Amino acid sequence: MDRKRVQDVYDSLHEEVFPRLGAIDTKLTALDLGVNAILINGCPQRANDVRRTERLESNIEKIFEKIDGFGECLAEHRVDVTKQIGGIRSWVLGGCVAVLVALLGFIADVIFKR
Asked: Cα(11)–Cα(18) distance, rounded to whole angstroms?
């Protein structure tokens, strides 16, 4: 059930988030160019320009906070899936060892009864 939930999360990320990353990169490039232009041409002189720049910086901070939160969430789900796979792997290996021990016991019983 958790594996299906993780797969659903991955599918939704693949369909909804990853296509948007290209647009975010484009906007970040445009933002970087705008910031460089401001650095070269000087700081804005009007109060509206200062407010607009502050609002833009605030929005950029929010975007990066969301990206960081998304990365943490994805990492947590990856750890959960890894733990589940590790638990399943240990049960399968334990079962294989038990079958091999039983098979060796059967072979030894057949050989030594002759």
From this structure: 10
Give the number of C-alpha atoms closer than 13 A to the C-alpha of residue 101, restricted to the C-beta side: 6
Cβ atoms 59, 28 nearer than 8 A: no
Locate the domains of the chain by residue range: 2-86
| Global pTM value | 0.33
Q: How far apart are CA 99 and CA 86, in angstroms?
A: 20
Q: What is the pLDDT of residues 9-20, one digit of tens each?
A: 777 777 777 777
**What is the DSSP track for 3-52?**
HHHHHHHHHHIIIIIHHHHHHHHHHHHHHHHHHHHHHHH----SHHHHHH
Burial 11-50 (b: 16+ CB within 10 A, else e): eeeeeeeeeeeeeeeeeeeeeeeeeeeeeeeeeeeeeeee
Q: Which amino acid is at 38?
A: I
1 three-state secondary structure: coil
